[in-house]
Amino acid sequence: MLGENGAGKTVLMNILYGMYRPDQGRIFVYGKETKIDSSAAAIKLGIGMVHQHFMLVPSLTVAENIVLGREPTKHRCLLDVGRIENHIKALSDRYKLGVDPKTVAHDLPVGLQQRVEILKALFRGAEILILDEPTSVLTPQEVESLFGAIRTLRQQGKSVIFISHKLKEVCKICDRITVLKRGKVVGTVDSDKTNSDELAEMMVGRELVSAFEKEHLAPGETVLQVEGLSAFNDRKMLALKHVAFEVRGFEILGLAGVEGNGQTELVEVLTGLRKAKTGEISLDGTLITAASPHDRIQKGLANVPEDRQKDGLILDFSVQENLILGQHDISPFATHWSTLNLREISDYARDLIQEYSIKTQNRNTVARYLSGGTQQRVVVAREFSRKPKFIIACQPTRGLDVGATEYVRRKLVEMRDHGCAILLISADLDEILALSDRIAVIYEGRIVAIRERAGTNELDLGLLMTGGKCDQ
Q1: For the chain, which residues score pLDDT lower than 50?
Q2: What dihedral angle (degrees, nearest 10) is formed by the CA atoms of 448, 453, 457, 461?
């Protein structure tokens, strides 16, 4: 299932899983018309859904997570642990998912967490499995492993709906592909009779460049310098361990790594949201290790955060209010009396809405009512319009359709071409390889390698991301 942001994929899947009720139309399961008015009804009909964001209880074991809400008991009151673990083990073996039912959830890498979510649906009798963006946080090796599990499910007679923005993956794993656009089906094609270019054109209504090209530029002076950086995570465990790297002007440094290896803590330390235990950070020759987030913005740091809704926007603020965040207390948007200059804000917002093609009814539209792609454009417009010296772009295209992805990537390259130093953090290796001039790999809080883009490939990076090898 393909489609741009706002095309209706999520709404359609939520209807099939009983989370939304349709206003009209009919649903047939195994040829019989039925009404699905709750998730329980969907599960009873054999429909299971694995959401993009995992819903596991970290402190429970795999088996306990899978049976949660449907716990087998003995003597009417005691949890039958042995029976549960044997059942889950048999289910895992049958579908070749390779999950140990006794492992605690928070000890599992994301690839295995994904499999636990699939087992949860299978345990509840799912014959029709909906997978929403299942590969967004997986390494290439984990993706191949997941695809193997999906093929096993298909061979066992299961039906799988695979939702993704990665056209290459859809062509590889799916038998048929349905494209949605503005809530309507554009068409359904056999995967062996189409290609990524044709699918992209069906989605956005125009031809896209399949291979992203950028001009090679000589790097400039060092803009960001990080030396000996260490920091704790929220669990008071060391998440960053003596991290050192530099980002130069006219350069994009890609940071590849499986999520949970210190990327979040690194961004928080660089932006001033988390205190460093050791080490120094310099921006354009000025030490900013102890500077506040606001001071770092004023010194030329911009941040496109991983979670645009949680960290990038105030959802109940208007588009124009979000566009001036971080500059709302300085001229020309505020007077000496800390009063907002509404005329200046209005003109500024109007210009950015036009320049960045922000699809909004007007500048006073509340941010939460925008599509995900449009919300991302608001964040990008605000951060890039400040003429920053250094940009942190963390998962900048996650959840975006091919059109919005192309737009954000071109904006990043455009900023690089104007002399910006950019740190690109992404779990998407295709993105890292397409945009980066140099690539650093983080594993268990350490930078284990830094490669020139021309001197590495997807397999090499995938091995580094999983601790398979490291630079000496």
Answers
A1: 210, 472
A2: 20
